Structure formats: C-alpha cells, structure tokens
Amino acid sequence: MMDLDPLTCYLAEAVASRARKADKAGRTVSLSIRRGFSRAKTIDQPTNVTMDIFRVCVALLDQFHSNEDEHHFISLAYFQ
Known about the structure:
By secondary structure, the protein is an alpha+beta fold. The chain has two helices and three strands.
C-alpha cells in the first residue's frame, strides 16, 4: 500500500510555489486519484501556503478515501 502523504506534500509545494510566483492565491483545492477518487474543498481564506494546501488534501483523504488500493497517479489542482 502506498503512503500518499509524501507525494501529496510534494504536489502541494509545486502548486503553492507556482501560485506564489504568479502572486496568486486560491480557495479551492481539488484532489484526484486514478481509480475514481476525486474531491474538492473550498476554504474560507485564499492561500498559497504549502502546508495550508497539504492540510486540505490530508483532510479530504482522511474523510473520503479508503487507503486499501495501490495508486499510481494522483493530481492536485488549485483554483482562485
């Protein structure tokens, strides 16, 4: 079974870094995993902080995803 936290943190940093470079911040985090898992959450305040985005992803995984299957693809999108 694959631990998704390191990959999720890496993706959160990549997304947050691009947002900071563009001087942007967003409120909606969308997390998708091949095999049919896709969830999004809108937060109260716009952010481009890696750990804010990562915490949203972890909360989505904890709430909605069963970690029974192996995963080979994960994507993270971030919207203003």
